[in-house]
Amino acid sequence: MTSKVQAQPEQKWWILSATALLVCALLLGVMIGPAGPVWWRVPLELINRLPIVRVNSGLSATDWSIIWQIRMPRVVLAALVGSTLSIAGASYQGVFRNPLVDPYLLGVAAGAGLGATIVITTNRSGTSSWFIDPLPLVAFIGGLLAVIATYLVGSRVRGEHSATTLVLAGVAVTSLATAVQTFLLQRNTDVIRQVYSWILGRLSSATWGDVRLVLPYVIVSSITLLLHRRLLDVLRVGDEEATALGVNVSRVRLAVVISATLGTAAVVSVSGLIGFVGIIVPHAVRLIVGTSYRVVLPVSLLFGAAFLIIADIPGRILDNPAETPIGVVTAFLGAPFFLLILRTRQAQK
Amino acid sequence: MTSLHLDSVSVNYNGRVAVDGFTDIIKSGEWLCVIGPNGAGKSSILRAIAGITQHTGRILVDGSPMSSRSSRRRAQLIAYVPQAPVLPSGMTGAEYVLLGRNPFVTHFGVESDNDRSTVNDVIERLDLADLAVRDVDTLSGGERQRLVIARAVAQEAPILLLDEPTSALDIGYQQQALELVDRLRREHGLTVVSAMHDLTLAGIYSDRLVLMHAGHRVADGAAEEVLRPEILSEFYGVSVRVHREDDGTIIVVPNRRSVV
User: ipTM of this model?
Assistant: First the structure.
């Protein structure tokens, strides 16, 4: 008799396919842009840059600096932001056993938004000469403080972290931070446009500096979340049964929330609030690969990166030179795409 | 072979006492059935043993206190089948049974070949091959219950706790589920503690009954000592007849209140 539970080989295929998709998206991302060389010269130049191989791509030094200094950091940052929001969203949905949860649930977005608003309203122009740009830093700290506040409030209520208490505390902290933000904006109406553009999210000003800033957080948070993928499957039976199966539920939840929050706060601080990705990507992935977090987490990471790179492309071409905010594009692309998958899946059943 | 010792175990929820100083020694290989009216504290006792709910007093397995053990180690010793188990949609039967191996997998590890072969073994022994490949969403109540018991068996714990294992099942599946537990108990020398509503079934399958009322144990002994009309009417507030069959089976039937 053949065995019923094997390490499923199709998991590997899903991960390989998602990796292939990501590589295509990366290539596409560096090939397309409003200025610069003809698109087909870019892959030739990339091959030329490899050791040993020599191909004449006909690219000038200016062309290459457009690719290396402008497109590359933007594509890489899109990949980091997309992968982090997606894997964080999937993990949050796992620990809270709620499919509608996104990585902004516990107040990280509102906290980061408040942080950014404080910097912009106090004296944005005065900070241009600073050694470190305070905007991402304060946004990052604001996001973390908001989640810490949520966790403390959530734990005071009943002495233990029940998922519902935490979510409710998150709602309260989000409302409070948003209220303070609105108050600040009311008193500084001249910067509303600037704050609003930050909130809608942007990748247009991406530099290698931004990439270096978020990379450590993204790596640590992704690895920690991936390590928890089997435990997230066990948690699907509920806190009590998972406890009876030997899982320290509150410890797992804390570890997952901390890692997902660190990653989210880091990417939000450089990209603004790009909505929708953290919900849509994990759901699309579930519809395709099934519900097990062992596949959902790695595939969300890869697919989320590819998704945001692709979602960033129309923004560069449309309305040039004033760009469409990426948050608008993700919603615009994501919603029909999601509906399409939903419909085809239902038709299959 | 593993004994379970409860030493004045009390459970309270936000000040309301659910179990008050419960003491018992469940011998190795024994099947103890806890009976009692709704809210008597049956489930709370099981939940305290399973480590799901806070309690005072001591719970010892083979003389060693559970409070000093990690939840993983406790799960290696005690398997728990809840009253309303959650079967996550989208999981196959086999994946669900594999969850029972969690206590043997390290925190960030994955199941070993040994874990997978144990699960395949359980599936084969319990005749679940057809359920193993199906989505748990598509299963009937009886099929789900067999899978939940299979998960507990895959846990290979010497102590098995069952909270109302038959409440959602028809009479055929009730018998099937309890026969399965009985068979496993004999094959593996399991110590079983179950909470049950059906007094007749409780009497048939268990070695010993404990009757609870308002958090206290009020009667204890073999079926014929506990399932007596005067005891049941006092604590359940009903009038019942108790028949004793030739083979010793005790049957409890409620009396119809005659309409005058």
Answer: 0.91
